[in-house]
Amino acid sequence: MTTIAEPSLQASVEYYKTLCDQLQHALDSRVVIEQAKGVLAERHQLGMDGAFTLLRSFCRANSLPLTATARAVVAGQQLTELRQLTGVSSRSR
Description:
mainly alpha, Arc Repressor Mutant, subunit A, 4 helices
């Protein structure tokens, strides 16, 4: 026998599962972005704010997703290599 509260409870459970998944994804993205900031800060002798500005600006200029680019940086790719992979040259600007 189903009570009146069960559908409402089920909807709440589904909502919080979805919210939890979204928060986990955001946290995972944030971790890789922070790691990339550290890599870029060390490579280019920048502060953390400068490293994030570099990463974000590069992504915007090349229409690249921030998290995917951060993963590539952490994996050891240089930003110039990423530009070549996308077919964007610095002369085309």
